[in-house]
User: Fold these one by one.
Assistant:
Number 1:
Amino acid sequence: MTVEVRLPTLLRPAASGAAAVSVEGDTVGEVLHALVAAHPALAGQVLTEDGSLHRFVNVYLNDDDVRYLDRLDTKVVSGDVLSILPAVAGGAA
Amino acid sequence: MAEPDETSEAEASGGARLSSPEGSGTFWSRLVLPRALREELVAHCLRAWPLEGCGLLAGEAASGVAWRCYPTRNAAGSARLYTVDPLDHLRADRDAQAQGFEVIGVFHSHTHTDAYPSPTDVAQAPDPAWHYVLVSLRGELPSVRSYRILDGAVSEELLVEQA
């Protein structure tokens, strides 16, 4: 399956400046691992060392947050769009 | 809304001076915030009170001009913490890109403290290129200030309000 992965501005320098890249995989996890394999500078930015989703990013399959689907096991089909955005949080505490 | 004259305004503004990430000197940092957007983000924070209110600003990264304000839900639902709702973030990001803009910063309110980034804000700041706008609702009138956060170092930047 070929999926379009859209990168946030913060991560584009690690992917030669690309805003979107085409990546192969059958699940969200496979796509993200293939993304990091193709762009090693992304290592540690999207997936943690143990291979889980980094808590500082949100990943969406089309219009859904993958945390509310099957996370990294979520199936993808060709033509899907996987968007990565930074998790934005803070506060006075 | 007229486009600002970048060159003359940048020279005249005297923005906050930041050390560049490369250490190769200094650059001038500022956020240009149209008054209507300032009113929109303050109104959102007042509506969210007593919880922290939050949202995103989109515009032109190179010039530091905000053209859109996207109020978002606070997924943390807290008076002391905020989390920009991830789906609201996705929608804002798509809408901004469809209009030729990009998300250039985030705003949130501090209900009982000053408009200065907390250790939590600094630790969780995702993007050194972003503008971090703080709205303090502590005083009689809301106070709005803007910061850059580079490698854990906070620098206030010039907030240029325009009609």
Note: Helices of chain B lie at 6-13, 35-48, 86-98, 119-124.
Number 2:
Amino acid sequence: MLEAHNLHVWFGAGADKFHAVKDASFSISQGESFGLVGESGSGKSTILKAIIGLAENWTGHLTVDGETLGKKRNRNFYSKVQMVFQDPYASLHPRHTVDRCLSEPLRMRKTSNIDARINQSLNDVGLDPTYRFRYPHQLSGGQRQRVAIARTLIQDAKFLLLDEPTSALDVSVQAEILNLLNDLKRQKGLTYLLVSHDLAVVSHMCDRIAIMQAGKIVETIDKQMLRTATTETDYAAALISASHGFKRSTSQI
Amino acid sequence: MTALLTVEDLWVRFQTRNRLVEAVRGISFSVGRERIGIVGESGSGKSMTGRAILGLVQHPGIVQAKRIDFKGRDLTSLSDRDLRAIRGQHISMIMQDPKYSLNPVIKVGHQIAESYRLHHKSSRTEAKIKTLEMLEEVQIPDPERVFNTYPHELSGGMGQRVMIAMMLIPNPEILIADEPTSALDVTVQKRVLEIMDKLVRDRGMGLIFISHDLNLVSSFCDRILIMYAGRIIETCLAKDLHNTSHPYTRGLLNSLPSLQNPSEKLPILNRDPRWKEEPSVNAIREYSNA
């Protein structure tokens, strides 16, 4: 589904140039869930931005579904690839109803039977049709994230870029959204690229995981290796042990 | 060990245009020289509890309590002026996000020194020395440099350490930490917690640790209060968290994805409307002198 070779992304120029992603290479096959983990500033979200076309300065080879990506993305690309952002409170237009938010991409692409498709997509993400004419502020965080997911599905996207989709949500709501994503993946054969700092979430969702540090992919491991903490690099081991909660014994030395 | 703080029947209400919102509904608990964790989902009233103790609930919020007893003084009856003397010097609070809690146009060193000088009569030089000592204590590698930086020049983890330094420099007896590490990365989070843990233990302080992260609280605190809809729904010792019985606590614990015990589908928490009506658990503890 996705091939990335020697991907470099940077921001700014001259003395202010910041090299956010350095020489990242990975590939994701159809129907797979791939995870990117790392601390903030390690460049995991930047990779998503480069793929979706929100970061302009990049070099390397990006291929999505057999199509090599250039500087510009065409409309056809966005019907295949869509992104879900971290903060559902910020990623929906506050003055647009759910209906408008979902119908806009369809009207842009001059699709027919908009009405039926909106109802279908709301149904897919487990939202009652009565929510269709509500504004984002009338919805809870979990419901907003469902709308954001519905917005990607309504365009029949097959490849979703998920940027920390549950980090702004409570654990109980997080469970609902993760289950929803897994169900949708099974029903529709979706491919996910999930960014998260929560290793437990990544191990629940993803088949293979790339660990990033300071812009580089330091290690790519699979789900089983993450669970048993079989890693080659010290950084990956430190990251896994840090996510096991606070241990008093280490601090008493 | 005696109780430092005893809160009895605390209510926080907000009068809005349409209805009265009850954020905290009659909770009672006590804090000794121990680490108390308050956990719950957003909107369960855990942050409001912390704020109400310090009188930081803003208009139109109304705080009512039978008593908030801090070492024999009832905080509910104190004037703003007297409360200010307690706030900071005896009870202080670390906020969630250092980005929004530090003054962006004052150097962090001066902010920390100010908090020292407010509570101790001292010269500027003495305050500066104390500040540098404190920065060292929160394991900031180059205190002299950090003293002269502005908040935006610091990373999240450094900012949070500066906050901790600022709150601990007056040497309070109780520290209220409202999600002190939620905005931080796991690796940084661990270091900040280690620093807090050491300082709290060395100084024999009482700690109220507010968080939504059940596993973190169970590994960090001594005693846990679980809040739901403004009430304490269950209380337990931290080590017994995984043996708790209330369906809400169980539901929260089960809905967490786990590294060690993978499951195909995460159990979803089904909220029972009756939980809201359950009486609040009294978490006032008898402290023996042992």
Note: The domain at 5-283 of chain B is CATH 3.40.50.300 (Rossmann fold).
